[in-house]
Amino acid sequence: MSSVESVEQLHLSEDYTICDNLFPMRKSGPKRKISLEQEFLLIMMRLRLGLLIEDLAFRFCISAGTVSQIIITWVILLSKELDSLILWPSRNTIRATMPNCFKRLYPKVRTIIDCSEIFFETSSALDVQACMWSDYKHHATVKFLIAITPNGAISWLSPLYGGRASAIFIVRNSGFLDILEPYDQVMADRGFKIRTDLAYKQCTLCIPPSAVKGIQMSKEEVRETSNIAN
What we know:
Blueprint: E1 9-11, E2 17-19, H1 36-49, H2 53-60, H3 64-82, H4 91-96, H5 100-105, E3 109-119, H6 126-132, E4 133-134, E5 139-148, E6 154-157, E7 161-162, H7 167-173, E8 185-187, H8 195-200, E9 204-206, H9 219-229
Parallel strand pairs: 3-8, 8-9
Antiparallel strand pairs: 1-2, 3-5, 4-5, 5-6, 5-7
Helix pairs in contact: 1-3, 2-3
């Protein structure tokens, strides 16, 4: 299915709408089991609530196979149409939109990064199992790096990697380092041991202080950890 012709609008709030160019255009062939608006609701429930396919099939009175096809179609469509919303803002834009708490404590931060994992069906192939296994989640997963701006907007996403890939590996191989500019500061948790990698780009790393075994953190270190976490 391709993108749409219609210009009808689905109202989500008083001042924000999503145009029907997010809706797949009608095609010849079997009649749809549910309306476009219902399909849109279904995919939102799947993505936001994580409802099972069987549950959605029961709620919308359609077969599990139909639900699967709707999900595949909409995920491809949304990925294509919404990809342009993920932007890497200029340094001036970051400064202009930076929350006061960042201006006061971390005025040089350009981006905050972390890795996220999504459960993945376990493969019967042993080599694939080894690639996808996540020790952290104790399950097969796909992992990706996500970067956000200080005001919370998603600004960059990496390709997907098997759950076995470490955060450091993804940072080094995903292209993230290539988008940084000299003197950028990256905020991350202490699992991202990338200070040297950033130094090669003339960038710096902002992470919570690490507690040394047997040595209690100072008040300043505790306060710094709390500031970064919040």
